[in-house]
Amino acid sequence: MLTVICDEPGSLTAIDRDKPHRQPGEVLIRIKRVGVCGTDLHIFTGNQPYLDYPRVMGHEFSGVVEQTDSESDLAVGDVVYVMPYLSCGTCIACRQGKTNCCTRIQVLGVHCDGAFTEYLSIPHAFVHKAEGISLDQAAMIEFLSIGAHAVRRSAIEAGKRALVVGTGPIGMAAAIFARLRGAQVTVLDTRDDRLAFCKQHLNLHATVKIGAGDKDTLAQLTEGDFFDVVFDATGNAKAMERGFEFIAHGGTYVMISVVRDSITFSDPEFHKREATLMGSRNATPEDFRHVEQCLREGLIPDAALNTHRLKLDDVAHSFATLLDPSQGVVKAIIEC
C-alpha cells in the first residue's frame, strides 16, 4: 500500500508498505480522507514536540470499514472516523475521564504512525461510525473537536466576550464554538487573508489585525474591560505571553497552543486580575460527539473551511506548498 513518510524535517518520501493485518479487537480501515493539521506542518518543519523521526503523519481522518470482529457494532462498508488519541484507560487522567491527557497517550501520526497511507488497523474503541455526515466532514471532526474542547473547558457563557488569538484552523474552531455558545467573539491575527475569511464565513463580532494600536482597538471593542476568555491558538511563545494583557479582571486564559519554549508572565498583573490559566490538550469523546452533531445540524461552515485538496499520490512533492501563506490554505484534505 502507498505510504508517505516524513524521514526528517523537510523530507517526505512515498514508499510501498505491506497492508496491516487486523488483530482481534481491531478494525481495519480503508482510509479515504485525511485532514492536514498544523501538527503535520510542524512535523514537516521540525517544530513539533513529542515526536521522533521517521514518522507517517496524519491524525485527522475518515474511511470505510474493511474488516472487523463478527460481534462488532460496525459492519464492512460503514463510514467511520477515528479518535486518534490512543489512551491507556487506566492512568490517573483516564480514570477521571480525561483520556485526552492520558499519561501514556499515543497520538496517531505523532507518537506512532498515522494516516498518510491507504490502510490502518485501529483498536475498536477509537473507531466511530459517522452517521449523517460525509467523508469530508468526518475527516474534519478532530480539529474542530480541539476547538470545541477548549471552549468547553473555558465554560464561557452567552453574552460574554471572547478573544481568539491566531486564526489557523484550531483558532477558527475555537471561534466557531465560542459563538455557538452565544459569546461575542473577536479574532486577532497578523494575516489579512485569514481575517477576511473569518469575517466572511464565521459571523464574528470583530476581526483585528495585529500591529500598532491593536490593543487600543481591543480596549475600544470592550469598553476598556478586555475579554472574559482569551484563547491562544498561535503556536508562538511571544504571542502566548502577550495574550495575558487581554484578559479581563476575573477572566480566563486558555492556551490551546503548545510550543517548545518556556512561557513567562507578570505575576502582579496575573494576580490583580485573579485570572484563571488553563491548558487545553486534544479532545474527549464528548467533544467529538458534540462536533458530529453540530455538523449534522449544519452549524459549521465545513465546506468553506476546506479550501484545498490533494491526492495521496501527490503529497510527497506537493505538501510543502501548503506552508505558503499566499496559497490561502485553511484546511487541506488529502483524498486516498
What are the main properties of this structure?
336 residues, alpha/beta, Quinone Oxidoreductase, Chain A, domain 1, Rossmann fold, 2 domains, seven-stranded mixed β-sheet, six-stranded parallel β-sheet, 28% helix
What is the element layout, followed by pairings?
Blueprint: E1 2-8, E2 11-16, E3 26-36, H1 38-45, E4 60-67, E5 79-82, E6 85-86, H2 92-95, E7 106-107, E8 119-123, E9 127-129, H3 135-154, E10 161-165, H4 169-180, E11 184-189, H5 192-201, E12 206-209, H6 214-221, E13 227-232, H7 237-242, E14 247-255, H8 267-272, E15 276-279, H9 285-296, H10 302-305, E16 306-311, H11 315-318, E17 331-335
Parallel strand pairs: 10-11, 10-13, 11-12, 13-14, 14-15, 16-17
Antiparallel strand pairs: 1-2, 3-4, 3-8, 3-17, 4-5, 5-9, 6-7
Helix pairs in contact: 3-4, 3-9
Q: Write down the CATH class of the largest domain.
A: Alpha Beta
The Cα radius of gyration reads 20 Å
Secondary structure category: alpha/beta
Fraction in beta strands: 25-35%
- What proportion of the residues is helical, as a percent range? 25-40%
Distance between the termini: 11 Å
The dominant shape is globular
Low-confidence stretches: none
Mean pLDDT: 96
What is the succession of H and E elements? EEEHEEEHEEEHEHEHEHEHEHEHHEHE
What is the count of helical runs?
11
Q: Could you describe the largest sheet, including whether it forms a barrel?
A: 7 strands, mixed
* CATH homologous superfamily caption of the largest domain: Medium-chain alcohol dehydrogenases, catalytic domain
CATH architecture of the largest domain: Alpha-Beta Complex
How many β-strand runs?
Answer: 17
CATH topology-level name of the largest domain: Quinone Oxidoreductase, Chain A, domain 1
When the domains are counted, the total is 2
